[in-house]
Amino acid sequence: MTENSYDVLVVGGGAAGLNAALMLGRARRRVAVVDARAPRNAPAEHMHGFLSRDGLPPSDLLEIGRAELAGYGVDVLEDSVTRLEPGFTARLASGRELTARRVLVATGVHDDLPDLPGLRESWGTDAVTCPYCHGYEVRDQPLGVLGTEPMSVEHALLVRQWSPDVVYFAHTAPPSEADRERLDARGIRVVDGVVTAVRREGGRLTGIELGDRFVARTALFLRTRTVPHDELLRGLGYVEGAVDPSGKTSVPGVWAAGNVVDARATVIIAAAQGAAAAGALNHDLVTEDVERAVGAYGGFSPAAERAAAGAR
């Protein structure tokens, strides 16, 4: 292989991409990770639900992962892939060009947030989506849930597990009468009207504004529309949702893992998906290596010689 030629190109250096690269490096594959360093959870102060790493800042996990990859000879490039061509040739923003036998796309997603003053500044710290990731840190505090879609009521009922003081802000998803009864039964107060701003003071969320009304809260939960960074996949002809449990996509030679194909995957799940994809990728490469070896083998194989000797 040349300097810019690899067995596997991993696009994306989050938990899925790094864990895949770790497994592939240990399988003695030549691997490059191209990482734009723009993870979805960058604003978060801590990550949770990851055994042995609970409470670790997300950036620390990635730094630990990159250091581990160096021990296995994996190249980690701080760059971005601007174009991925069948075959596979990757053109990077820096102008560099890489080739690879296989590709794993682990480029993640971003959250499309409602256009509310103060919300983006609060995002990832005290305005969040996942109660399993952030609920314990705000347990028993006055919490809010922003109604943005029909499933927002279910979100509020879930958040109630972490605090007895939960307010459901109807906003653009007012609850039905049946849903109001469920919310009432769980002691969740419904505040009707459109939210106009998320108020912040001293660098923290302090409450929710609805015109001239104000409801004090210390954290806000909301469901967002997640937008996958799947441009490279679609450019190769990927059909959305066409991915098997190992991460193999509808495009031959291309795997995907993590939030780009599973928006609900937490950090530990994304890492596991990366490991699963790496195993499948290596097996696929082994199969190709064997086929090439058989095709290039000169003369009789030992098995063929034994068969010929037995026939005489």
UniProtKB/TrEMBL annotation:
<keyword id="KW-0285">Flavoprotein</keyword>
<protein>
    <submittedName>
        <fullName>NAD(P)/FAD-dependent oxidoreductase</fullName>
    </submittedName>
</protein>
<feature type="domain" description="FAD/NAD(P)-binding">
    <location>
        <begin position="6"/>
        <end position="274"/>
    </location>
</feature>
<dbReference type="InterPro" id="IPR036188">
    <property type="entry name" value="FAD/NAD-bd_sf"/>
</dbReference>
<dbReference type="InterPro" id="IPR050097">
    <property type="entry name" value="Ferredoxin-NADP_redctase_2"/>
</dbReference>
<dbReference type="Pfam" id="PF07992">
    <property type="entry name" value="Pyr_redox_2"/>
</dbReference>
<dbReference type="InterPro" id="IPR023753">
    <property type="entry name" value="FAD/NAD-binding_dom"/>
</dbReference>
<dbReference type="GO" id="GO:0004791">
    <property type="term" value="F:thioredoxin-disulfide reductase (NADPH) activity"/>
</dbReference>
<keyword id="KW-0560">Oxidoreductase</keyword>
